[in-house]
Design goal:
Layout lengths: L40 E5 L4 H12 L3 E6 L3 H13 L4 E5 L5 H15 L4 E4 L15 H22 L8 E5 L3 H4 L5 H21 L5 E5 L15 H5 L13 H12 L10 E2 L10
Parallel strand pairs: 1-2, 1-4, 2-3, 4-5, 5-6, 6-7
Length: about 280
């Protein structure tokens, strides 16, 4: 594998964008909105950095007011809020652990208090931890990964659904690992497979309520989760195995979410988009 990025490592999950070199392209610079989400209200979990930041800013540039939830990366969240405001829209940032159902209900309470409703929910928060052997995967890590990655999607969707009306949209973040697997990310890959099944099943449940549910399954993207997960050597090679031989940037992924959030995708539900650098997954 060839080097695609400078070697680097962060010790804290899910990582800080401001510590990365080079900085991910996640500000949607140069993106011109067309009011496709005018006056809509969106919530993006994990919206402080990486894909979540690019999605939040893209939504704002398309006319939406945007709330983000995040764990504890306060500086990253403040920068995302600044960029949302620069796009001329209102922003709201809520810090806490979505692996806790009480916090998911608190997020819903704050969003509804601030904006009155929710039109677009993006379940994007995630973490991952490398383990070479299944025998070394602890009960604590297994439960933690599932709570953050898939339980949170159940918790937050359940809390927000009473405030979503016909025409609302839910978009879940899956991963190419749901289709290809990963020998060192067993629990992470399993949660992403569960997200695909959750998306397909929930889409069928909510169709009669006029709510569409889709997912995006990114490939290797340059986000804080990468240096926070892997060794310096592996981080430096991130994305080199993709057919395009490089990692993607958050700005290259966000348009998938904008498409699924808008009326441009009005005949799509239960589907998954695959911005993954050319990997064919047939799913």
């Amino acid at each position: 594998m060839s080097q695609t990025m400078p070697p680097q490592r962060q010790s804290h999950q899910p990582g800080s964008q401001q510590e990365m070199q080079p900085q991910p392209r996640a500000s949607m610079e140069g993106y011109r909105g067309a009011d496709r989400l005018a006056n809509r209200i969106a919530l993006v979990s994990g919206g402080d950095s990486g894909i979540g930041r690019a999605v939040a800013i893209g939504f704002a540039k398309e006319g939406a007011n945007v709330a983000i939830s995040y764990l504890d990366e306060h500086a990253d969240a403040e920068e995302t809020l600044r960029l949302i405001n620069d796009a001329g829209r209102r922003g709201l940032a809520i810090a806490g652990d979505l692996g806790n159902s009480d916090f998911a209900r608190e997020v819903a309470r704050q969003v509804i208090h601030a904006f009155g409703r929710i039109d677009i929910l993006v379940n994007n928060a995630a973490e991952q931890h490398v383990q070479e052997r299944l025998e070394d995967l602890s009960d604590e890590q297994l439960e933690r990964t599932f709570r953050t990655n898939i339980f949170s999607q159940f918790y937050l969707t359940r809390a927000m659904l009473p405030h979503m009306s016909e025409g609302a949209v839910i978009i879940n973040t899956a991963s190419v690992t749901a289709y290809q697997g990963s020998p060192t990310l067993l629990d992470y890959s399993a949660t992403k497979g569960a997200i695909v099944a959750f998306t397909r099943s929930l889409s069928k449940q909510l169709l009669k309520r006029g709510i569409r549910v889709n997912a995006v399954a990114p490939g290797p993207i340059w986000t804080p989760l990468i240096p926070a997960s892997f060794s310096e050597e592996r981080t430096a090679q991130h994305g080199s195995q993709a057919p395009m031989e490089r990692p993607g940037q958050p700005d290259e992924v966000a348009p998938c979410y904008i498409f699924l959030a808008s009326q441009d995708s009005s005949y799509m539900s239960g589907q998954v988009l695959h911005p993954n650098g050319g990997t064919v997954v047939n799913g």
